[in-house]
Structures are given as structure tokens and as C-alpha cells.
Amino acid sequence: MRYSALKILTQALTGNKGWKPAWREPEPKAHYDIIIIGGGGHGLATAYYLAKNHGLTNIAVIEKGWIGSGNVGRNTTIIRSNYIQPGNEPFYEFSLKLWEGLEQDFNFNAMVSQRGLLMLAHSDSDIDRFSRMGNAMHLAGAGAQLLDKKGVEKIYPFLDFENARFPIQGGLLQKRAGTVRHDAVAWGYARGADARGVDIIQNCEVTGFQIKNGKCLGVETTRGNINANKIAVCVAGSSSRVMAMADMRLPIESHVLQAFVSEGLKPVLPGVITFGAGHLYISQSDKGGLVFGGDIDGYNSYAQRGNLPVVEDCCEEAMALMPILGRARLLRSWGGLMDMSMDGSPFIDKTHIDGLYFNGGWCYGGFKATPASGWCYAHLLASDKSHTLANEFRLDRFKRGVLIDEKGQGAQPNLH
Fold this sequence. Notes:
By secondary structure, the chain is an alpha/beta fold. Helices cover 28% and strands 27% of the residues. The protein has helices at residues 5-13, 41-54, 89-100, 102-106, 124-139, 149-155, 182-195, 239-244, 308-321, 370-383, 397-400; strands at 31-37, 59-62, 78-79, 117-121, 145-148, 170-174, 178-179, 199-201, 206-212, 215-221, 224-233, 252-264, 272-275, 280-284, 289-300, 330-341, 347-350, 356-360. The strands form 3 sheets. Strands 1, 2, 8, 9, 10, 11, 17 and 18 form an 8-stranded mixed β-sheet that branches. The protein has an 8-stranded mixed β-sheet with strand order 5-6-4-13-14-15-12-16. Strand 10 and strand 11 form a beta hairpin. The radius of gyration is 22 Å and the shape is globular.
């Protein structure tokens, strides 16, 4: 069923009795060409682009829970392409371009809102870094605007510009950045993949790999063994545990990243703001709640909840940035499992085991990368060759000494 304004009107006039499920609930087959482990945004996007771009439809997406239960539904919804490193900026800019046409592409309202993102500068060194970042963005075709203090005041006059510790001196604005409804991204990709023949199998946990003579032949699951020509792992914060079943040790640590939302408020933030003196990002949802995010909790964990010191830290930074928030109440918080690589950049690569592929290590940048990650991973699975935009996202880059160290924001930024 294709969604349209005419379809909504027709269903409304006929009692809404003709709507069909967004995707099927198939039983797993004995064999697939490709099995994708992980029904999050990246896994579903990979399946969608395998079918759409490469015509491969004998594919299964296996999810241990339900679609949208992982990080794709546990983030702060921001999309952007403000990077410096040549291994990162073209990739994330390509992802942003895919976001811009995503809803028309998979015929689903993902609520893509290019409301702009402003990175605040609080020192001369911040201004210098943002100048270099803006130049890198222009070279990649992303576009950026370096603002002085008056330029920031024109957009956000209610910020604390004269804060004694963190005075605002300017900022870097990317007008094409913004937010997207996170769970709608999962639903849209799932629906689009299913419509092209992909099997989406929920409540099916992988318990092991079938590996013989250096080749991966399939997976063992709670719903029986399933064979495949290729196995694509795409499980975010559970990467280390899943790949350990194949006796692989990854340069990845799992950490909790918390997010928070305030009570509903009248419109106050027209776009997304990041606090340059710390690690805080804030936007306002369509329901009126202010959505906050900050640093990882700092300890290894597989729990989807966090600790109070990080909540306090984010609230302190928010108050330093916007004193008007002092009387706003936090409504709720949640946590996502971050697969933090050692240099803060991801992996999209073949493993040393024939037929086994890996996508992970997205750190703070997983959601915004969803379309490009799926596009490049699908290209790798279909052709056995890395996409040009993901050439540097290799598993052996630490051994080769070619890190993509954007800002030293891996699992241990104190070591950078």
C-alpha cells in the first residue's frame, strides 16, 4: 500500500478499514542469500538498499527484540554533516543528502526537519577550529556559516552571552542540519524493505555462528538454525558480544549514552544548539519538550539506563547556556548502548572469516549516519568491495596506523 493524501481521505471516508500492516511477520526460511543481524536503523537501511539498489531480495533481517527497540529509538534525533576529517565529512554529507529525499524515497513520513544546527564558540581556539571545520564542509559541498557574537544573538537572543566562565564569542551554523523522528526512520525502512521482499524476523536472537573451515555458513538462533551465503552483523552496542561468538575481539567498548526530555514548553528553540565549552546538545521536539544529550556515562555497561551524575552535568551545562531553563522540569530520561571505537569513527568492512561482515563503532554519530551506512554496507555486501565513501572505515586501521581521529571522542578521549 502506497501512502498518500488521497489514501488518507479514502480511508477516512470508509471507516479506516482498509489499512494493511506496515510489514509482514514471516517465519524464517532455511536459507537466505544474506542475513542481517540487527533490526535497527542501520540494519534495516542496509536491507532496503540491497533490495532497491542491487535487486537482492532473498534477505532476512533478524532482530532479538522488536523493530525500533534499540538505539534507533533511543537517541536525540539530530542529523548533520559538520566534520573535518576527509574520511568522515564526505560520508556524512552524503548521508545528509539522503536524509533530504528520504521520505519521498521510502514513502513514509519521517518528520525530517532541517531547522539548522549551531555549534557555539566560547574561545579564540573554538573560532579557529570552527573556521577549519567550515572550510572542510564547504569543500565537501555541505555548506556552513561562521557567525560572530552578533550573528548568534540575532538567532538566539536569550542565551547567556556574558557568562563569566563560558562567554559566547560566535558559532558555526549549518542550516541544512536538523532533526528527524527516530522511530519513524525504523518503520519507514522496515516497510520499504518488506515491500521489496525482505523478511523482517522479530524476537529472534542470534546465539551463535556456524563457521566451518574459515567460512561462515549461517547463524544459530532461538528460532532454529538459518543458513546464508553472507552474514552481516549490525548490532550497535552489542557488537562485542555478538562478534565474540565468532571468536573475534573488536577495538570497541560498550558505554551508556543518556538523553533527557523536559516537560512540554511553548516554542523557544528554532533549531539545534551545541554547547562548545562542554558536551551538550539541545533541541525542541514537535511536542514542545526540550531534548538534551551529553557525554557517555564513562563506565562500561550493557544497561539501557544511566546514572545521576551525568544528568546533573547536563543540567549544569544547560543552565550555563540558557538560564531561562532553571524552572523547567525534566520529564524522563533513557539510555542507549554506544559501541565506542578507540578513535571515535566507525567500521564497515569484511572480517577475516569468509562470508562474515561487520558494521559498527558508530559512537555518538550512529543515527545521523543511518542512510549512508545502509547504502555503503549494502554496496559492500553486494559487490564485496568497499564503497568509495567508506574506504577508510576498515577494521585493520589501528594495525596500519591510519586512525580517523575526528576530535578524540572515542571510548577514552583522555588518551588522545
